[in-house]
Amino acid sequence: MATEPKPRPLPRCPVCGRRASAEARPFCSPRCAQVDLGRWLSGAYAIPATEEEKAEEDEDRG
Question: Is 1 one of the annotated binding-site residues?
Fold first, then answer.
């Protein structure tokens, strides 16, 4: 007889570290989802570029 696999535990919320909820996954709550969205929109998750990379991009454009 095959047994059913155990459900995986919910991951941790990337904002506060609490267990994620099924309704707001991967976050624990709609509030943490909004905090994450605000970080994306404000550029907090942007990868910083060096001056050399910026100069190369400008040369490539025209």
Answer: no
